Amino acid sequence: MAAPDINRSGQLEIFVRVIEAGSFSAAARALDMSPSAVSKLVARLEQRLGTRLLQRSTRQLQLTPEGCAFYERGLRVLADLDEAERCASAHAEPRGRLRVNANVPFGHHFLLPLLPAFLARHPQVAVDLVLTDEVIDLLEQRTDVAVRAGPLKSSSLVARRLGATRMMIVAAPAYAARHGLPDDATALLGHNRLDIGHARAQSGWPVLQQGQVEVVPPGGNARASDGEAVRRLAVAGLGLARLAPFQVQADLAAGRLLPVLEHANPGDLEDVHAVFVGQGGYLPLRVRALLDFLVENVDLGRPVA
Fold this sequence. Notes:
- This protein is 40% helix and 22% strand.
- By secondary structure, it is of the alpha/beta class.
- The chain folds into 3 domains: 8-88, Orthogonal Bundle (Arc Repressor Mutant, subunit A); 96-164 and 270-297, Periplasmic binding protein-like II (D-Maltodextrin-Binding Protein, domain 2, 3-Layer(aba) Sandwich); 168-267, D-Maltodextrin-Binding Protein, domain 2 (3-Layer(aba) Sandwich).
- The strands form 5 sheets. Strands 4-3-5-14-6 form a 5-stranded mixed β-sheet, with helices on one face. Strands 12-7-13 form a 3-stranded antiparallel β-sheet. A two-stranded antiparallel ribbon has the order 1-2.
- β9 and β10 form a beta hairpin.
- The longest helix has 24 residues, at 65-88.
- The chain is elongated.
- The termini are far apart.
């Protein structure tokens, strides 16, 4: 295949492809070019801009601060081109690979059950899905959309709110039979309170005590990497857990878990957002399609599974 006539937008697209693919060789395969040609084009782009965009090593590529800013703005430019082409064609459809990251509970109860319907609606889209409760860097992980629960930190990311959910404390009947259940915040301190082993905005369990909110820290003999693992430990009778109702709705209905201290639940809400790089008017069609689909189909009070 003859090398394409490289213009500024072409150089930009190749640079973005390199970042998304993670290497010159992977980008070259996707573009049907040689790795040396891709490397030379990126070097020519850096020469034209007068700055280094990538730190190269034998193991990985790392964006420089200038490269990170150029990549983020480049995504907007390419998305704007996609939008212009979409407006020029009445038959344009979302297409391409969509990289999605979500926290484990949302992934299990919403994203995984909804994914078949999304892909059936958009057959030219392919999804790479990662479930983790760790907060990732979207640019570093080359992620299009991430779903996050809790307050958002100030950043260059844009967010669409998917809803909010309250939290509740639960325990298994087997745990209650062995240890009883607490009736106030002070008694809660004497129970095995299962923890999630990653940094989060809320470091304790808010409980109403004589009209005031007391925050009881988690403290027990087990921590887990994500909310679904904590739910399983609670169902097994190991201790108390504080989780979203959509996570435990089926367990409560089946009697596998019991609500604890609901009379002292302050009703605090945890927002859930889909976050992404770029402004709303500069989104690839595949990203916009997923965001619209999630807003349309996610009801945090009614899990899909």
